[in-house]
């Protein structure tokens, strides 16, 4: 097949074959492709030198891409909260009786629970109560949240400080000595993989609050934390092979005899991951300072432990302030 020009001024027809037309179009397409590729390679400023006058574009690397998710409240978070309060025109008010809201003290709530047989106000006998495992009223009104002499919300602060300071990831293993009603532990349990949070606690009522109220109400039963009743720094129930990335004691060692603290540290040293693992102790380390600096260092060294330093943690949100003392295992 051919295309013929019929122009009268041309003595002979110009013949263009179809294969020739296809070949020409292919060559033109290839040329255009390389031309566009060449132009695009010069349009990106990412690799420009400092002398070119244009700064390189930096893409921030999120902690998640390195195996960690940041847990701490940032300055930007605080500003966002302030903005929401301002935009909604909010101010603190007295918590008094108002439409749809009937403030009750914990004592009044507990009386209501006793009088009406439960939060759903069952009218029948106890045998018609379909709750599989009724929770004690004292726990339902959260009396245990007042056990600490400081805001319950401070537990979040402690978690953020410890998790960031020890570079905890969801796959880390954490041991808390004296977890109480899980004021701090709840946040670790939520963050860590199932069964990676362990705790030794001696107070029975605190343990009941943890198992009967806190874990169920926070939807964390599936995380299966290993929380054990015990004292005298006996960690045998956690197994001999477990190694922890973080061991911490919040306001616990200051209530123990110095001798028992040292027994505990001796038992814990071999359970701490060498070099990278951390032990954090809050408030003070009088069990150490009472020995004198040189003797304390000598005692720690004999256990394979090393004092790293003292930290001040000041909350951005909850008026919460604490001192923490950091140790690591210096021998494998």
Largest sheet: 7 strands, mixed
Widest sheet: strand ordering? 5-4-3-6-7-9-8
The stretches of 5 or more residues where confidence is low (pLDDT under 50) are 1-11, 39-65
Strand fraction: 5-15%
Helix coverage percent: 25-40%
The best one-word shape is extended
**Intertermini distance:** 85 Å
Q: What is the H-and-E element order?
A: EEHHHHHEHEHEEHEHHEE
The chain-level structural class is: alpha/beta
Count of helix runs? 10
Radius of gyration: 33 Å
Commentary on this structure:
This protein is an alpha/beta fold and 332 residues long. Helices cover 33% and strands 14% of the residues. It contains ten helices and nine strands. The protein has helices spanning 18-41, 75-87, 106-116, 137-140, 154-165, 185-191, 204-217, 258-269, 286-289, 293-302; strands at residues 2-3, 16-17, 174-177, 197-201, 226-229, 246-249, 278-282, 305-314, 321-329. A seven-stranded mixed β-sheet has the order 5-4-3-6-7-9-8. A two-stranded antiparallel sheet has the order 1-2. It is extended and about 100 Å long. It starts with a strand and ends with a strand.
Secondary structure layout plus pairing:
Elements: E1 2-3, E2 16-17, H1 18-41, H2 75-87, H3 106-116, H4 137-140, H5 154-165, E3 174-177, H6 185-191, E4 197-201, H7 204-217, E5 226-229, E6 246-249, H8 258-269, E7 278-282, H9 286-289, H10 293-302, E8 305-314, E9 321-329
Parallel strand pairs: 3-4, 3-6, 4-5, 6-7
Antiparallel strand pairs: 1-2, 7-9, 8-9
Give a quick set of tags describing it.
332 residues, alpha/beta, seven-stranded mixed β-sheet, 10 helices, extended
């Amino acid at each position: 097949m051919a295309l013929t020009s019929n122009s009268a001024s041309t003595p002979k027809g110009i013949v263009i074959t179809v294969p020739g037309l296809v070949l020409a179009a292919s060559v033109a397409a290839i040329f255009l492709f390389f031309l566009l590729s060449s132009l695009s390679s010069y349009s990106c400023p990412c690799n420009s030198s400092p002398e070119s006058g244009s700064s390189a574009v930096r893409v921030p690397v999120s902690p998640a891409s390195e195996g960690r998710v940041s847990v701490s409240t940032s300055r930007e978070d605080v500003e966002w909260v302030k903005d929401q309060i301002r935009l909604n025109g909010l101010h603190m008010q007295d918590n008094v009786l108002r439409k749809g809201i009937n403030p009750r003290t914990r004592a009044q709530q507990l009386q209501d629970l006793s009088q009406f047989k439960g939060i759903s106000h069952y009218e029948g006998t106890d045998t018609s109560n379909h709750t599989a495992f009724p929770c004690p009223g004292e726990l339902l009104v959260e009396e245990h949240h007042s056990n600490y002499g400081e805001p319950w919300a401070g537990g979040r602060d402690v978690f953020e400080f410890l998790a960031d300071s020890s570079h905890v990831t969801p796959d880390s293993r954490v041991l808390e000595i004296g977890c109480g009603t899980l004021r701090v532990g709840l946040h670790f349990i939520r963050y860590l993989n199932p069964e990676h949070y362990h705790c030794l606690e001696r107070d029975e009522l605190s343990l009941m609050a943890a198992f009967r109220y806190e874990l169920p109400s926070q939807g964390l039963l599936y995380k299966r934390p290993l929380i054990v009743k015990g004292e005298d720094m006996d960690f045998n129930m956690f197994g001999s092979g477990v190694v922890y990335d973080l061991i911490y004691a919040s306001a616990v060692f200051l209530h123990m005899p110095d001798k028992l603290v040292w027994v505990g540290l001796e038992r814990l040293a071999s359970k701490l991951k060498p070099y990278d693992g951390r032990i954090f102790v809050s408030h003070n380390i009088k069990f150490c300072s009472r020995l004198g600096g040189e003797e304390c260092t000598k005692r720690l060294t004999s256990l394979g432990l090393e004092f790293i330093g003292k930290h001040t943690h000041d909350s951005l949100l909850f008026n919460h302030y604490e001192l923490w003392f950091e140790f690591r295992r210096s021998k494998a």
